Amino acid sequence: MGGYENGDSPAAVAGEDGVVLGVDGGTTNTVCVCLPAAMPPPESPAAVPILARAVAGCSNRNSVGESTALETLEQVMTQALTMANTDRSAVRAVCLAVSGVNHPSDQQRMLEWIGSLFPGNAKFYVENDAVAALASGTMGKLHGCVLIAGTGSIAYGVTEDGKVARAAGAGPVLGDWGSGYGIAAQALTAVIKAHDGRGPQTSLTGDILEKLELSSPDEIIGWTYADPSWARIAALVPVVVSSAEDGDEVANKILHDSVQELADTVIAVVRRLRLCGEDEKDKFPLVLVGGVLEGNKKWDISGEVIKCISKVFPGTVPIWPEVCMFVTMPF
Amino acid sequence: MGGYENGDSPAAVAGEDGVVLGVDGGTTNTVCVCLPAAMPPPESPAAVPILARAVAGCSNRNSVGESTALETLEQVMTQALTMANTDRSAVRAVCLAVSGVNHPSDQQRMLEWIGSLFPGNAKFYVENDAVAALASGTMGKLHGCVLIAGTGSIAYGVTEDGKVARAAGAGPVLGDWGSGYGIAAQALTAVIKAHDGRGPQTSLTGDILEKLELSSPDEIIGWTYADPSWARIAALVPVVVSSAEDGDEVANKILHDSVQELADTVIAVVRRLRLCGEDEKDKFPLVLVGGVLEGNKKWDISGEVIKCISKVFPGTVPIWPEVCMFVTMPF
């Protein structure tokens, strides 16, 4: 991560040219970076001169409601400006890349809100967080496809000539079963079904009860609805992965189904945009981000997703962003 | 519905013996009836001398939160007492049969709450609403199995010697896919998938957009999360049934899958309690209640569920309660 920890004064770096704010708003965490407005295009992500970086909680309005989401966004921007020894008057541009922005009306409402926070001549951009995630893997060039699988999941693609398409990103009610939330909800359901006689026994029961410090599957119902945060459910993903690695068949099935869901999401976007060319064999970048797709696990979700997609599109070029605004999932 | 609409004075009927309150708390509606405490066992449901009957909204704490649920319960009981020209001092017993009561700790907390509302010597009973539903079909005898499929779904069974078992009733996060909520959520998901290229085209798209007065599937995401009420989603069930009746394959698959889920729920309970005897051929009553299982549709969900269950347990005796505290679903 670039930064000005010692010696340089952030205020001096921001100077008269002012600053820009970049916000990556996710369903688990929200990150705001403050950069000098006068900045040549960096040669690598590590070379980006970050003045300050602040972190807050969920800013997906569909998960926590609009007012909480906007409060979180305002708070994280204020904190970044304070850390950079500057204030709102220095802001020349803000890019909000926020999960839960799904429709032009969401975008419009957020543009009006951000405009009211920074009166003056600043420029504002509002996008789904998938746009920032794609840019983080392609050094800013908006071309290719990105798959995010953190608490939520979405695939988002852009063609060379600017056509865009997306799939999933619709939240837990609307079938994002490959997301961290989806994986964990399926695991909790499997425990309930094993308990009431509808499903096979699974080591998920003991593993999840231990993690949640509950004594019986009956208590899972109360635990689940005590707090509607999606991230709290998604935080159970490592338990599912670990049960699967230990050979539990139910956990393995959940992960395999989720891999297929995630692959299907990418395949739908790539096909609609013809990112793979007419013969479906052209090369295209596929950026992978989010806690579910992080590596270093024996059960390699990310690798399995690539395998599924590559069977359909052999030109898939996977990219795990070197440095990303994204913060690590809570698992 | 029995009652004292003219002539008799409810206060005179309640007399010095006081009244009892019966509350059926569902995820869509909550009904409270006020009865005279001194009452011989009725010969038929229609002969129950109901002094008053009040209706309020959802009292499932898992759907609307504990404080809203308790407010609704208090409100509906107060209204029933007012309608019966009496007050809390006349109450000798209260039976709360409320969805969302899943664990002894839920029961204990609610017993303490109801005790604080009616100080004195009144008796209190707190159960899951499935218990009231079973009794409504068996003239009060707690024996057999009940399947509720309204906004939520649950199967609950009791043996002659008082053993109980339940399955499902765990809410939308935990896989109640046969419930009204589950059916509607699957339909909304199918529309999203058809729109983003992950699923087949379906007439559900046009039918649901028309019903919700939306112009594009993108808008469904915002609509879904704008209000977390489960009943609001479940109210789309008639659209799914109607699309299926018109031959839509996606809608038909959703209904067939839900029939299987509901049948599996009953089968799990009946098998655990051996309600079907050792050879799985004994007769047992199966009470069916809730909007999803109401008849008079071309696509007969209730009939299909019975067909599935009867293949496994030929002794299944289906009962649709003649008079039930339950109110009709919003569809």
Question: Topology, please?
Answer:
Two copies of one chain form a homodimer.
Chain A: H1 10-14, E1 19-25, E2 30-36, E3 52-56, H2 61-64, H3 66-83, E4 91-98, H4 104-117, E5 123-127, H5 129-137, E6 144-149, E7 153-158, E8 164-168, H6 180-196, H7 204-212, H8 218-226, H9 230-234, H10 237-245, H11 249-273, E9 284-289, H12 301-312, E10 316-319
Parallel strand pairs in A: 1-4, 4-5, 6-9, 9-10
Antiparallel strand pairs in A: 1-2, 2-3, 6-7, 7-8
Helix pairs in contact in A: 6-11, 10-11, 11-12
Order of SSEs of chain A: HEEEHHEHEHEEEHHHHHHEHE
Name the quaternary structure: homodimer
Estimated radius of gyration of chain A: 21 Å
Number of domains of chain A: 2
CATH class call of the largest domain in chain A: Alpha Beta
Protein architecture, described:
2 copies of one chain form a homodimer. Chain A has 331 residues and is α/β, with parallel strands linked by helices. Chain A folds into 2 domains: 118 residues, Nucleotidyltransferase, domain 5, CATH 3.30.420.40; 148 residues, Nucleotidyltransferase, domain 5 (2-Layer Sandwich), CATH 3.30.420. In chain A, strands 3-2-1-4-5 form a 5-stranded mixed sheet. A 5-stranded mixed sheet of chain A has the order 8-7-6-9-10, with helices on both faces. In chain A, helix 4 links the parallel strand 4 and strand 5. In chain A, helix 6 runs antiparallel to helix 11, helix 10 packs across helix 11 and helix 11 packs across helix 12. The N terminus and C terminus of chain A are likely disordered. Chains A and B meet through helix 2, strand 8, helix 6, helix 8 and helix 11 of A and helix 2, strand 8, helix 6, helix 8 and helix 11 of B.
